[in-house]
Amino acid sequence: METDLQSNIASILDNIDLTKKEQFDMVRDLLADSGEVSKGYLYYKARMIVDPEFKQRFYSHIRKYTENRMKNDPEFRKRMNKHVIEYQKRRYQNDEVYREKQKEISRGRYHANEEYRERKKEQALARYYKNKLEASNKAIAV
């Protein structure tokens, strides 16, 4: 059904005989009939589909508002941080690579800098062979 909706919207946008207002009305009606968009958000969603510049301005406004509110409202900042953490948990819940990386971080074996990781591996190998050599020297001395 979603592909039908997307193809219908694409055909409306491709029709050069329609004005922006007519395109907007038709897209809004399609979205309303599909039931995928809530009534309050219908206008904005349809407008963003028809007018990409509006989409840029809309998201820019929301970003600025959120940043300003984060600076000035500690309660809002707490709620937003909580939402971000929950979002990241949901997003990465099934990501195997992310889980492996988190395991390495929790064990203290992972660092973002590749050179640092390589140097630590070399140091660990050097310690291993040094300890092995000392153990064999002690065994020979006894």
Task: Please specify the SSE layout and strand pairing.
Layout: H1 2-14, H2 20-34, H3 39-50, H4 52-72, H5 74-92, H6 96-106, H7 114-141
Helix pairs in contact: 1-2, 2-3, 3-4, 4-5
Structural write-up:
- The chain is an all-alpha fold and 142 residues long.
- The protein folds into 2 domains: 2-72, no CATH class; 111-141.
- Helix content is 84%, strand content 0%.
- It is elongated and about 95 Å long.
Mean pLDDT: 84
> What structural class do helix, strand and pairing data support?
mainly alpha
Tally the helices: 7
Termini separation: 80 Å
Q: List low-confidence stretches.
A: none
The number of distinct structural domains comes to 2
Could you give the order of the helices and strands? HHHHHHH
Question: How much strand content do the residues show?
Answer: under 5%
Q: Which of globular, elongated, flat, extended, rod-shaped describes the shape? A: elongated
> How many DSSP-defined strands?
0
Q: Specify the helix fraction band.
A: over 70%
For the sheet with most strands, the description reads: none
Oligomeric state of the chains in view: single chain
What would you report as the Rg, rounded to the nearest angstrom?
Answer: 28 Å
Brief overview:
With 142 residues, the protein is mainly alpha-helical.
Please describe the structure with a list of short key phrases separated by commas or semicolons:
mainly alpha; elongated; 142 residues; 2 domains
